[in-house]
Structures are given as C-alpha cells and as structure tokens.
Fold each of these.
Amino acid sequence: MDINVVNALTYEDFVKLFGNVVEKCPLIPAAIWSHRPFKDLADIEAHIKEFIHSLPDSGKEGVLRCHPDLAGLDLQSGTLTRESQEEQSQAGMTTLDSAESLQMYRLNTEYKERFGFPFVICARLNSKADIVRQLSERLKNDRAAERERAVEEVTKICSLRLRNIVLSDIQTKL
Amino acid sequence: MDINVVNALTYEDFVKLFGNVVEKCPLIPAAIWSHRPFKDLADIEAHIKEFIHSLPDSGKEGVLRCHPDLAGLDLQSGTLTRESQEEQSQAGMTTLDSAESLQMYRLNTEYKERFGFPFVICARLNSKADIVRQLSERLKNDRAAERERAVEEVTKICSLRLRNIVLSDIQTKL
C-alpha cells in the first residue's frame, strides 16, 4: 500500500473502502478521515482506537451492539456482512453440529442477558474451542471489565480488516 | 406509541427499529439503548442529541459524512436508504430538470471541497428552492460554524424519522 494513495482519497472513497473496518460503524472511519494525512497504516489504526476509546461507555456498548452474534441468526439467515461471514466461517462457526449450535445459542443468550451487548471476539485469531471457552469464562466478568475486554477484541478485528484491505489492490475496491 | 413497549425492546429490536434515525449510524441508537428506561419519545431524542453533541469535531464530521449528497450519485443509482429516498423525493430532488441537476452537482461539489463533508439539510422541512438558496448561503460559513449548522439539521432529520417510526405500528416493523 502506498499511504499517499490513501491520503488522496475523498471521504466518499475512504468510507467506501474502510467503512466496515469496525462492524456496521462507518461513522468511525468517516470521522478519522478528518485526521489526514496519515503517516502509515498503523497511524490509521491508532486514530480508530483513539476514537473508540474516547467514546462514553454507552458509545463503546453501541459499537459492540452493532456486532452480530457468533453462529447466530444473521449467520443462519445469510444477513452477515461479507467481513463477518468470512471471519465466522474461518473460525468454524458455519459448520457447527446441532449440539454445538445449541451450546453457542445458550451461551450467547446468557451473555447478552448479563451484559446487554453481544459477545465479540476476534474470530480469526481463535479456534472454535477457544471461542466457546472464552465465552464461558468472560461471562464471569463484571460489566465494566467485560466492556473493555470486548472493545479490545473490536480493535483486533479492525486491525485485521484494515490489513486485509490494504494488502489487496486498493483500486479494485473503489 | 406506548413508551413501555419501546423500553421492553431488546437492543437487537431497538436497533432494528431505530437503526437509521441518524443516517447510516446505527452506533448512535445502539449506544443510547444503555440509557433505558426512556420517559418518552422526547427523552430518546434528547439522548441522541446529547450523544452527537458529545462527539469530538471529527466525530460530528463523521456523522455528516455518512449522509448522501442531495440529488447526488446515490439517488441516481438507487442506493439511497429508504428514509433518504423518501425525504429527497418529498423535497423534489427526484424530479429536477437537467439545469437544476447540474446546479445541485456544482454546489454540492463546491461545498464538499470547502468543508470535507456533504451538505446536510432536513429535506422534509424545505422546498427545492429553499434547499438551493441555503446551500449557496451556507457555503459562505466557516468550517466550525457550518459543522454545527449541519449537525442541527441532522437532529431535525432524526426527530422526524423518530416520529415517523413511533406513529406507525411498532410491531409491524420488527
């Protein structure tokens, strides 16, 4: 990637290209476009992290609530974003047997009832077994700690999505 | 509307229902769900306004950048959100003659070059002539004043979208 190419993008092309690096939150890349010129990819990433961390607790929870359940309704009904579909598929969420599906459903439901936002984890960095284990464990956190933990995962997902975009040919995406 | 029905919604149903009251910013209704129970519709509106006003300048500009141009590419290619399509249509943006289209294109382009975000106006509250006049006038503002002015319009649009939702039958939208 040539950062000069990115820095030359209009906000419209920038949002078209990076609009879903944080799931269903085009507001965030649209906001950080204000901070051009970027030094490099890490600089873009740093601005996104800073933006999310500067949000009030409700805003952080809002970011989380824009995420789909893992192995949830959106996956079953084919309404995941392209990025989520790829990530959930890589983590084995599309090939669960009925016992595993039921377990995910129960754990997701318990998690959402407890915290008021969905369980978010960087699926690309975790196996199916890791995901179930962490979902069970994180259920024991208090809400504030879990909010921060989940936001950390959002930034990991964002980082991989950013890398994925800039490592492919930018021009083909516009 | 019975506010108790709204207060009983899961965040998923709340976001499904109110997800686009601020154009392409589901993050915002998803965030203010944290403030339930709401007293009434005005209370929901107040929380949304407060959230937007609490954003840094870049965040406010991010909200603006999630809006389409008036009589722009999205309208021509049929990729407006349902809400924007209705609003632009009501304001006569779908029936411009070629001279009017060209004028809107030129003014929108000049505005975006000057401010780095699109011209946002509550189309439901303005006629075609008002829109052209205000676009020309607001081009003379400085960036900070115009950012605040445009955010004001976002909150007017939000207010009408909210009213539109709660005045129709909530249950049919879920």
Amino acid sequence: MELNPTHDPSARSWLASANNPQADFPIQNLPFAVFRRRASQEAFRGGIAIGDQVIDLAALHQAGVLTGLAAQGLAACTGDSLNPFMAMRPAIWSALRRAVFDGLLADANGPEAATLRASLVPLAKVEYQVPARIGDYTDFYTSIHHARNVGRVIRPEDPLTPNFQWIPIAYHGRASSVVISDTPFHRPMGQAMPPGARAPVYGASQRMDYELEMGIYIGAGNTQGQAIPLTEAESHIFGMCLLNDWSARDHQFWEMAPLGPFLGKNFCTTVSPWIVTMEALVPFRVPFSHPADEPQPLPYLDTPANSAQGGVDVQLEVRLETAQHRARGVAPDRLSATSFRHQYWTIAQMVTQHTVGGCNLQTGDLLGTGTISGPTAEEAGAIVELSLGGSRSISLPGTGEQRTFLEDGDAVILRGWCEKPGAVRIGFGECKGELLPAVGD
Amino acid sequence: MELNPTHDPSARSWLASANNPQADFPIQNLPFAVFRRRASQEAFRGGIAIGDQVIDLAALHQAGVLTGLAAQGLAACTGDSLNPFMAMRPAIWSALRRAVFDGLLADANGPEAATLRASLVPLAKVEYQVPARIGDYTDFYTSIHHARNVGRVIRPEDPLTPNFQWIPIAYHGRASSVVISDTPFHRPMGQAMPPGARAPVYGASQRMDYELEMGIYIGAGNTQGQAIPLTEAESHIFGMCLLNDWSARDHQFWEMAPLGPFLGKNFCTTVSPWIVTMEALVPFRVPFSHPADEPQPLPYLDTPANSAQGGVDVQLEVRLETAQHRARGVAPDRLSATSFRHQYWTIAQMVTQHTVGGCNLQTGDLLGTGTISGPTAEEAGAIVELSLGGSRSISLPGTGEQRTFLEDGDAVILRGWCEKPGAVRIGFGECKGELLPAVGD
C-alpha cells in the first residue's frame, strides 16, 4: 500500500504551533468540528484544527481556491452541521484533508497557503456545537473489563452475562440530550431504591458517575433492511471523538430491570468538539483478535481482513477538577488512564452488529463504545469501578479531597491521544463537563 | 367547563360520508396526517381526515380564507412534516381544528365551506409518510397485564420486576426505523441462543411477533434540565396514533441482558398515518387510579387533577391477514381485542417520568405506550402472550391455519376507535405491516 503523505512523520507546517511534538493538532491530524467565535452572533460553520488555530471552512470555501473533489467536500462544510460532508464518500473526505494538508506544508507557497493563513481563527477564541445532527445515538458495551468490574458489583456470582463474548451488546441512548464539551448540567432527580428499603425514594441522585467512552460518527448510512457486512463497515465511519456517558447509578440500577438504562443515562451525554478522521488514525491501528481460549466470533462478525487491524490504540485519561482545584488554582487530578486497544469488540463489529437485523444507520448517527476500562483496576473508566461500588474512597492528591461518587461542582475532563515510535502524536482535544446542583431538590 | 362545540354529538357535516355512524373520521374527530396523491410526484403536505376524504391543508392555506390563530396554524401544516404545527401552543391546534369543524358543518355556507370542498382529496387515492420528524423514539412498558404475561414466560417465579408499580418503565427505541403503515419489512437476521445450546446460532428470527401499542406525539418540548410537572404534562402532547413495535423474540431474549432490547426491536416500528388530537379524545377520558391494594404513586407522579381523568378508553383490536387470506379473499382473522383504559400508567405520567431527570423532549418525539394487554388472556397484545411463549397454537378460523409466531407473508392490522353512549364514534384508522422473507438467509 502506498504511504499516504498525510501520515509522513517528517511533514512540518508553516504554522509553528502545529510542529510542537506535544500538540494535539499537528499537520498529520486535521480533525473536524463546528465552531464560531466565542460570544459572537456568527453562524456556526465547519472548521479543521491545526496547531493552536482553526481553519474557517466557510471562509476557505468563499475564497474559492480549492478545486475538484476537495472543493466539493469543502462546500459541504460551510453549514452548522457536518452532515452534508459526512454523507459524502470517503474519497471526498480524503481529498479535502489532503488539499488542506498540502496548503499547510512548510514549503507550500501557492494561493492555497495564503488563503489558509487568512482563514485561521485562534482556538482560544472559539466555541463549538455538536458537530452533527445526530439522528440516533446508540451506546455499546464493548469493554470486557468494564463489564466484569460492573458485573461484580451487581451480580457477584456471574459478572459477565453469557452473551457478552458473542455479541457487541448495545442499547439505544438519547440523542436529544447529547451536548458539546463545556456544557454544564444538573444532577438529575429521580427514583432510587435504597438498600433494604421497602419503597423507593424520590430525590437527587446520590451516586453520580462518568463513563470514559469514545464516540463514532457514521458517514454514509444503509438502507433499512440491508445489513453492512464487516468488510465494508469502516467505510461507513467518518471519525471518532471522546464521549462521556454520565450516569446516575442509583436511578439506573433501580430502573433497568428488565428493559435497560433510561433516566439513569438520558439527562446528559457530552461529546468533544473535534472528530478525528479514520484516515488520521491509520498509523495507530493495531491487530485484533479474541483470545484463543475465549469464544471466537460467529462468521458474520469475523473476517481475516478485519482482524488484521481491527483495534485502535488511543491513549485515554480521566481527570477530575473539583471546586477546590479551581479555587486553589491546582491542576485537575488524574483518576485513571487506559487505551482503547483493550476493547473486546472492534468499531467495525459494532457497525455490522447494529445493522445485521436491518436497522438503518443514518449520516451523523453517534455510536458510543461503552465505558473503556483496561485490564487492571487502575485502568477503570468509571468511578463506580474505581470506588468498588462506592465502598472505597478515592483520594485526590491535588486538594486532599476524597470521592466515592461525583459531587456538585466536580468537572470531569477526558483526554485522548495516539502516539508511537515513528509517528507524530495526534490528539482528540478534551471532553469536559461540570455537574451542577440538582434543580428542585 | 363549557362544552367544546367539536364534541357536540349532534353535529353533522355537509359531507355525507362523515355522518356514517361507523366512520372513523366524523366531524368530531379531524385527525392530522402527512399525505400526497398515491404514486404521484407531489410534495407531501399536511391533511385532515373527514369522512372518506382528506382536506389538503396546503391547498386550504393557498386559498387564504382562514384568519387569526387558525390561519397561523394552517400555515404550519403545509410542509412534509407536522413539526412546525406541533411546536405551536394548544390554543393554535384548537383554533385550526375549530375553523375546519365550522366550515364542515352541515349548515356552513361561507367561503370556508366552499374552499374546504375544493380542497378534498379521496382517502382512497392517497399515500402517507411518517407525519413528524421524530427526533427520539421512546418505548414504555405500562401494561401490568403484558408485564405479567411476558414475565411468566421468562421469570415464572417472579413475573413482575419490583420497579413496575413505582416507575412507568421505558427504554429508548430506534427513531430511524419508524415507518408508516403499509410499509413491508424483512424478517431480521441475528443471533439467538437455542434452548440447551452451548453457542448461539446466526439466522433469520424464528419467533417473530407484533406488539399492539399506541403512539404519543410530543408537541412543545422542554428545556434540558427542566422537568415537566404532571399537571402540565398533557399540554405537551399533540395527539395519539396506533403503533406496532415488531419484535424478534429469540434475538431479543438472547441480547437483552443486561442492557435491554436492541436488535430484537430496532429493525422496524410501524405507525398509523393519522394522529388523533387530545382534544378529539376528551369525551373518551376515564377516571384513573391505582388499585388500593397496590403501591400508590410517589407524589411527583400522583396528583388529584390527573387521576380524575388520566385514562383514555380507546378500543383496540389486532387482526392477522396471511397469504392464504389474501389468496382466498377471506377477511383477516381477529387475534385479540382490548382497551387502552387498562394501562397501569397514564400518558401524563409517561411524559413526567421521561423528563424528571432533566431529559429534554423535542417536538415530534414519539412515545410508545408499550404492549397493551387487557386483564384477560384473550386481551393480550402480542402473539408471544397468546401462544404462551410459542407453546400453544392459535387457530385462524378464516383459513384453518395455525400460528405460534408470525410467518412470512403475514400482515398484522391494528385498529383503534372510541365509542360510548352519547358520543359519536371516532377512529384511528389502521396500522398495517407485512412481514417479508429474510434477506440473505
């Protein structure tokens, strides 16, 4: 396979901030978002991140210097959602990314470079909205470590349900309450059944949790009744982001038999602004297979082509910023770190399983991966796992505070990045949300 | 309370077909749909049913004879979804319905009547689409009889989960695969775990079922984080329809632990074209309370104002039309009949529960009531209940066939209507779908 020039680790940009080896957005990344200048009345439009800047794609389109497929793609990035662009074929996604890459290269000196320079807006001055009109949001449950950790809390004798190793389990989530990073939300009211009680209580959740996840945006959808085979699944994926599936564990555990989570999850789900394309992730793909001593996937979920590079090695971390951290100017404490490469099921398997019965995915649909917990206890992606169901306090070294669940004023910050020898580090930016006190408690 | 003239049982229309006492669409009903002439290239637009005709609301708007609130409402009914109209306040819904009612009255002779007459299209010549852009679809589980019937199949020792009498249980469904009546769909492929097997099998569902439900369309939504109190819940409901939540029971039972139904439900959900407004249903409201020997609702789900008329007495029936019925020209066989008045939770309680944690409903969102099964075995709203989990055959008198689950070519027809002494019967039309053979089996 020919090397894609956008993966060349020696490529540098004329924009100095893009060449910082710790930058999330070097010239090898070029993720997409929908943005405008903060506190302005400007229309939201598409943007591509580079270094500490955003390329304003509406301005770039207006300048009219791109041609061919790249120009077609660019014209679809000028509105307040990326759906028109996401609906296009991967060759167009690729052409636009390549044209922007070429114009940003250190030795670029044509009209594209000048126009790109004129289209830059500092990242520090922008705000974002959810980058797609999300028709449906589906949340998977694909970390075997998370499934075992949580299962031990509620079903100690049998933590893993028998279907886990056969099915990428999923449930439908709530699309309307997906919000962009930095949107605070209120602690939810609802019913919980206290241990040993005879009747449930109504009140603010006492067991507030986050869930470290990644999000997958669908590009082209499928016709209802027509499944997407595994070999084609990744061509339907536009890119990935960070996702926090906030959870009210007390409400969730009381309501979820027999039909699954509902109010325990649907009050808020936070996504990061930037969508990293599948093309940018190519250098960080890893081989994937189920352990030989575990059930092997049924044929429709198992192809050699896929298992050769089914995983994605995205480093992930969760940090907690309490009101005390902010008051004292202390950096947020790290709660855990892991990698997305540990998932039991791949993103292609998720797409194929979702459509195998004929369910139609649509452009802009969001799939959550489910909580990402790694193999060791320290790699858990939810506080209910770290605190063993609330039975153990977690110390925050920065402030000396303790936590079993989240408290009002706590902000959770997810970060993700890919790095390995011989490749330039690329990052996902951050996904942050702050828990406000309950309304009407 | 002043009598709403549209509820006057003595009202008659100049359109003779509207005065048939068995008609679904007398002048007292006036439900809304989105339609166009069948097999035409016309734009879909709003319509109101009267007798055997549809009032073309785009044509009526064009004529410009309505004024005030009614004209405001009418202008919002000309596009290919009713969302702009549903987003308006109930006074506008009411004003448009009243203006149309007045113009259809037997003694109406102004320009409104002439214009209405000129806007009629025969029901027999139209086709429909889903009348709203559905942001999210939620399915409830509010029939205690259904919950007990199904629970006995999978949890004989404890059929009702402990939360049922405290929570209007719900889960998120799939909005993208909601289709309009008369849209056939394919038997889904997927995984099932046969009894006693050590590994699941992949194939077409062997336990295909329907679910008799009603659908509720949301009018005005709520802001994320702001719950809708019970006393205001019904003002957020635009109207109701019939809904068939097709289910692949073998796939569903294998996948649903621990996160609920997913592929077992998301391949297709069918809705009827006509939305009967809450105003038209006023004469058929019934008092509602939980039995004294069962837990009483927590205060946020229980107000005197609501329990006075929380129920809706909609008569419902399920008919099965097999390929044999069609080949022989035999009428479909009735499988069961019941009433919506038996539900354990009200539609207002569903809306309030959905939002109590801060989840935002949006205009056009669809809530399913869950399978509607009455108190006796004959009133069951799903074939898995009628056939006792597939252990008993159901005879179809019309053709002499037998069924335990649905077979390819079977069409299920749901019908609903309201009738009582002193009121004119109103109907919901029908909700029909045919099961086609699996693709790729």
